[in-house]
Design a protein that fits this description.
Structural class: alpha/beta
Helix content: 40-55%
Number of helices: 26
CATH superfamily of the largest domain: paralog of FGE (formylglycine-generating enzyme)
Strand order of the largest sheet: 2-3-4-1-5
Largest sheet: 5 strands, parallel
CATH class of the largest domain: Alpha Beta
Strand content: 5-15%
């Protein structure tokens, strides 16, 4: 690779200009040479946007040049930040710099002497007040001065503040206090007199030696936004008060927003428009450096590093911030890391890497610091963002609990970053890499970026992530658990948390269930409860109905349970619908496996016949609608499995706002008197009963239906061949009865 690295030096000539700044420079040069004066032109843009480069190009255009009207220039460059560390006032540095520039002109002796006098007085009087020199007879103060350490007082204001707090017994008199105050007043009087003389004298000098010869004193002020707030305003106000005279023109480079903030801080008001109004009085022509266009970026990358592949050039062109300084910096970082990686790989200390993937990681590190910091903790985040960017994962396949979290999940924080999404569509995907392989890119780029955050206790972090309700964090925690082979140590406590409904929140239970979908859920989903024979009130009309005893599964059938059936029945089609809406629920048609991480979700997209076949394989059958209602309702004539009042926290219906099926059994407060879970909401359930000749009865309501569907006596219907994301089923088992009783299920007259 080309060993040349880019420096942060400004563009000084047309030959060096790869960002088309010369066009801006030509126009602004013409404007300043043909406009009335005084005039101030603001070159506005954030740090690194090229303000200095543009002003250098303008300066080169105008240096030694004359217009058709024979206007010439006398150029002065003032770097405000260079004087930031000066103990004195920066406005004084600007005035002294201007005076020093004027002395290069062919001045008469009296004007040279006047400038010399101003320089001496600027140093003497201003230093006098800044250092706090006082006309105090220190020997007369005696031991009190030593005791108070007054000789170390650095300003008149500080000394006066101390003196006013002293009693007569300390040996100080009112006369001494007045003397100190008078000396302070005298210093300021001399200072103001000097500045008044300077204002009129400067206008005279510019007129006599520049303006009347059709000349222009052109002052470039750079790096103003790097100064402290008070000092930045000193420069602006010095221009307006003392230098803003005919024959003068100013180019002022600054971050517009930063200067506006400085003004608001100075004048103590958050009012919108204050900073803008302030600048409008000082700057007659604002020029905002436009961000680099993608074509400019790509052209620069190709010229700067022609050895890069077109793929990598596109990554940098589309991913880098439109800022010349950042462009150079990120290319330098890429070159450094590419060289470092080659050495480590050759020595067997690092896995092989793909340069396009390295380029993407450099872009993320340089432009999206918050994302990079998150990746250090959750490497799988980049894979999930990539799936979104490439349209391979639905937006609603994320764990969101409305109203429970103000902070959006990690994926949701970054998917709106369009340049990032464009970059993740280019080149080889990260989704094919393991977490360890992704970490190799992160550790490599870490040498030129942020340090990782302080690590908390690893076990505590895993628990925080498992219960975060953020699917990205949950997956990252699961990866760590699986790497350390600690599945049992975490899965059992997670299952207990779900079952302790009163001691945990919905967020915690839902997060825990999602985690168990990856780790393996230890709950017994094959468990069935026995419903004793007897009478109960059935339907909306509460008609008496007698049922024989039977058993019914506590949970709806899960994906993991159905997967065992599919393995042994290759002739049974997998749950699959060739429509966009079904992508979240479809099984893999090649591997015949359920969606990743959804082992403990209710199986959906199954037909009535397939559900019945599963039940028979298990040694059971689908329940009748009467059996289903008895198990869900009990014998006390309730409306919902938990009672007579609807509770949003006890069921997954439309009111829950979850917007999709959830793992089974997480709404413990919604269990029926018999102990059945998910009888209300989550998914409808097939029954053995006919609604009519063409349809079958379904019961229980679903995630995309309202609370009315969750009533235990509500029936709906569906064609037996229908595959729905909102229909599942559970298994019923017949209990053999003594033949002498000849029992039957029947209405009671």
């Amino acid at each position: 690779m080309n060993p040349t690295y880019w420096t942060d030096q400004p563009i000084l000539s047309t030959a060096q200009d790869r960002f088309d700044f010369c066009d801006y420079a030509d126009v602004l040069s013409h404007i300043v040479m043909t406009s009335a004066t005084p005039i101030t032109i603001g070159i506005f843009g954030p740090w690194g946007s090229g303000k200095t480069s543009l002003m250098r190009l303008i300066s080169n255009n105008l240096s030694g040049q004359r217009t058709l009207g024979h206007r010439s220039t006398h150029i002065l460059w003032f770097n405000a930040w260079q004087y930031e560390r000066d103990q004195g006032a920066i406005w004084r540095s600007l005035l002294l710099r201007v005076l020093d520039s004027l002395k290069t002109l062919d001045l008469v002796a009296s004007d040279v002497a006047q400038i010399d006098e101003w320089e001496v007085r600027l140093y003497a009087d201003v230093e006098h007040i800044e250092r706090g020199s006082l006309q105090v007879d220190w020997p007369k103060l005696g031991k009190s001065a030593l005791r108070l350490g007054l000789s170390l007082v650095q300003s008149p204001a500080n000394l006066i503040q101390i003196l006013t707090r002293l009693d007569e017994k300390d040996g100080f008199t009112d006369g001494l206090l007045e003397a100190v105050r008078r000396e302070e007043i005298e210093i300021y009087r001399r200072q103001l007199q000097l500045l008044e003389e300077f204002q009129s004298g400067f206008e005279h000098l510019v007129h006599e030696y520049i303006w009347q010869y059709n000349g222009l004193l052109l002052i470039f002020i750079d790096d103003l936004d790097r100064c402290l707030p008070d000092r930045a305003l000193e420069v602006l106000e010095t221009i307006k008060l003392f230098l803003d005279v005919p024959g003068c023109a100013f180019f002022l480079a600054a971050d517009h927003e930063r200067i506006e903030n400085v003004v608001r801080q100075r004048y103590g008001t958050p009012q919108e428009g204050v900073g803008e109004s302030y600048l409008e009085k000082l700057v007659q022509l604002p020029f905002y450096l436009p961000p680099l266009e993608e074509a400019q970026m790509e052209r620069f990358v190709i010229q700067a590093a022609p050895e890069l592949s077109s793929e990598i050039s596109r990554i940098f062109a589309q991913g880098m911030p439109p800022n010349p300084r950042m462009v150079k910096r990120m290319l330098n970082i890429f070159r450094l890391l590419e060289t470092l990686a080659r050495r480590r790989i050759a020595r067997g200390k690092m896995l092989e890497i793909d340069l396009a993937q390295l380029a993407k990681m450099v872009v993320i590190q340089g432009r999206y610091r918050a994302l990079y910091q998150d990746l250090l903790e959750y490497p799988n985040l980049i894979q999930e963002l990539e799936l979104r960017a490439r349209g391979k994962e639905e937006k609603n396949d994320v764990l969101i609990i409305p109203g429970l979290d103000a902070m959006p999940p990690l994926v949701e924080r970054y998917i709106t970053l369009r340049p990032l999404m464009r970059v993740l569509r280019i080149g080889p995907p990260f989704t094919n890499l393991t977490p360890l392989e992704i970490s190799s890119y992160l550790h490599l780029t870490l040498s030129t970026g942020l340090e990782p955050m302080n690590e908390i206790d690893p076990n505590q972090r895993i628990w925080d992530d498992l219960l975060s309700s953020d699917l990205t964090r949950i997956r990252a925690a699961v990866d760590l658990i699986q790497q350390r082979e600690l599945q049992t140590e975490y899965s059992v406590p997670l299952a207990k948390l779900i079952e302790r409904d009163q001691a945990s929140t919905l967020r915690q239970r839902l997060s825990a269930a999602w985690a168990l979908g990856y780790l393996g859920d230890p709950r017994n989903f094959d468990e069935a409860v026995t419903i004793p024979a007897g009478e109960f009130l059935y339907g909306r009309e509460n008609l008496p109905y007698y049922l024989l005893s039977y058993r019914i599964s506590r949970y709806p059938v899960t994906n993991a349970q159905y997967a065992e059936f599919i393995k042994t029945h290759r002739d049974v089609p997998i749950p699959y619908v060739g429509e966009v809406w079904a992508r979240l629920y479809n099984w893999d048609p090649v591997r015949r496996t359920y969606p990743e991480g959804k082992a403990n979700f209710p199986v959906v997209l199954v037909t009535w016949e397939e559900a019945q076949m599963y039940c028979e394989w298990r040694g059971g059958r689908l329940p009748t609608q009467e059996e289903w209602e008895r198990a869900a309702r009990g014998t006390d004539n309730r409306i919902y499995p938990w009672g007579d009042e609807f509770k949003r926290t006890c069921t997954n219906t439309r009111e829950s706002g979850l917007g999709s099926p959830t793992p089974v059994g997480i709404f413990g407060c919604g269990k029926s008197p018999a102990g059945l879970l998910d009888c209300a909401g989550n998914v409808w359930e097939w029954t053995a009963s006919d609604y009519n000749l063409q349809t079958k009865v379904i019961r229980g309501g679903a995630w995309n239906f309202s609370q009315d569907s969750a009533c235990v006596f509500v029936s709906e219907r569906s064609r037996p061949d229908h595959r729905s994301p909102a229909i599942g089923f559970r298994v019923a088992y017949t209990i053999p009865q003594p033949s002498s009783q000849q029992p039957v299920n029947a209405w009671i007259p």
